[in-house]
Amino acid sequence: MNTKTNAMRILDKEKIQYNVITYDVQKGKVDGISVAQMIGRSPESVYKTLVAKSSAGNIYVFVIPVEAELDLKKAAKITGEKKIEMLPVKDLQKWTGYIRGGCSPIGMKKHYPTIIDSTALEHEHIIVSGGKIGVKMELSVKDLQQVTEAKLEDVTK
């Protein structure tokens, strides 16, 4: 695969090491647990990127394990917002430049406050979307945190 995504170009520019992992999207399963099985990795090391919007209109990015669920109350508390809700899928591309199933925490249209679930600290490397369906990237938690300027917090149920 030689088409670099925006996320990969950013990592290259920052000289950050990452591995590209591709999987067959023809199977139609793009949920994180199915993808983890397809790429032969434990679901604990595969993270999904969720985008949420506060009642004040601020956008936040959450990177959490594929098996986990975002705790909206914890998310609101950590971000100092009254209320946070998931961004409707129809608005995802408008705000991030990415589509559902291919939303990377790296290289969105704008830089949004990013929170990586603290479970990531249990792993040296985690796998996140490479910026399009069928493409994942594996990189160190430290590098992901650095490139996204993320905070590590407990944000899952």
Main beta sheet strand tally, sense and closure: 5 strands, mixed
State the separation between the terminal residues, measured CA to CA.
36 Å
State the fourth-level CATH superfamily.
YbaK/aminoacyl-tRNA synthetase-associated domain
- At the first level of CATH, the class is Alpha Beta
Query: Unreliable runs, pLDDT <50, ≥5 residues?
Result: none
Architecture blueprint of SSEs:
Elements: H1 6-13, E1 19-22, H2 32-38, E2 47-54, E3 59-65, H3 72-79, E4 84-86, H4 89-96, E5 114-117, E6 125-132, E7 135-140, H5 141-148, E8 151-153
Parallel strand pairs: 3-5, 5-8
Antiparallel strand pairs: 1-7, 2-3, 2-4, 6-7
Family: Belongs to the prolyl-tRNA editing family. YbaK/EbsC subfamily.
Domain YbaK/aminoacyl-tRNA synthetase-associated: 35-146
Protein name: Cys-tRNA(Pro)/Cys-tRNA(Cys) deacylase
Task: Provide a descriptive summary of the structure in words.
It is a single chain. With 157 residues, the chain is of the alpha/beta class. The chain has a single domain, classed as YbaK protein. 25% of the residues lie in helices and 27% in strands. It is built from 5 helices and 8 strands. It has helices spanning 6-13, 32-38, 72-79, 89-96, 141-148, and strands at residues 19-22, 47-54, 59-65, 84-86, 114-117, 125-132, 135-140, 151-153. The strands form 2 sheets. A 5-stranded mixed β-sheet has the order 4-2-3-5-8. The chain has a 3-stranded antiparallel β-sheet with strand order 1-7-6. A hairpin with a 2-residue loop joins β6 (125-132) and β7. It is globular.
